[in-house]
Amino acid sequence: MTSTDEIRTARRLGVSGLHVAPLGVGAMLMGTRTPEDESRRILDHFVTEVVPRFAAPDGAAVPGMIDTADCYCWWEDEGSMGGHSERLLGQWLADSGARPSVHLATKGSGMLSSVDGVFVDGAADWDVARTRYVGAGASTLRDSLAGSLGRLGLDAVDLYYVHVDDRRTPLRETLGFLASAAEAGLVGSYGWSNVPAWRLAEIRALCESEGWPQPVAVQQQHSYLRPRAGLDSRSIVSSEQQDYLAEHPDLQLVAYSPVLKGLFSAPERRDPAFWAMGAYAGPDAKARLAAVDRVAAATGATGNQVVLAWLLAQESPTVLPLVGARTFDQYLECAEAIDVALSAEQLEELGAAGA
Q1: pTM higher than the cut 0.70
Q2: Which CATH superfamily is domain 8-262+318-342 in?
Q3: Model confidence over 25-64: pLDDT tens digits?
Q4: Rounded to an integer, what distance in angstroms lies between the CA atom of residue 248 and that of residue 75?
């Protein structure tokens, strides 16, 4: 990295004794839009240059989170069912010997039952795709987890998510399988993704009543911008969900798309017509983007780095951002956010900005 060799305290995952680096890598595009050589360059840098910068409070080495899913990335390869990212990660883990440095997360329930008719003129029709999720039934998750472990070349995965919340399947069935997978040592822990706060409360209550292990992570889209008024989304963190997570620190917020496709460093992407901006556009976003620009100018950091540094500084709830870059240069810009030190005044300015 660029500015210091300081070793910093890592982040505790939930209320467990496990600590991980507070910045992770999202591997969604690896093996498709990000070719193998570029993917390996990112992964090698992460485990050799970023992860060692952090340690547990007792000084012990910690792993860094690398996140994937069984369905990644069928929409980048028409006619496929996904699995590209897991296969690439499995081969990299076998070649690199980096398994001890990695807290590996994958997901099930977001695979499609069929990709027939999902592509129109070479692009995925997500309205159709969302009707094809295989769901979170026990037998489905059992097969999905087995498939993931096979592609990864592993006997167990550290963290396993329900990728797409499935309300058609009884919650007891899904949680029963996850508890049994944890007991069998197939998963170290589990989490949920793309889920509203009220479902998290249901999950907590059922786990308590059955004596099952609680989920340790919830993975949602989360950034510095706040969703626009009236937005209905299960995937983007709402103020209600932030409040829930602040009250339950045993559930770590893992943030995907934390820099919203790089728009904090690329003003031309801030147009509401740009798809990553659409969920946030409005006066509040305009004021918060202006605050990012001011702090970036004052610190010499990029906008993306300022936002990641702000997310890393949050305490209630804490945030573990995933860097899901397409290229090594995009990844490196984000990885260097761990060296951006925001003053208390700058953190206050960023937090107070907005309508």
Answers
A1: yes
A2: NADP-dependent oxidoreductase domain (3.20.20.100)
A3: 999 999 999 999 999 999 999 999 999 999 999 999 999 9
A4: 35
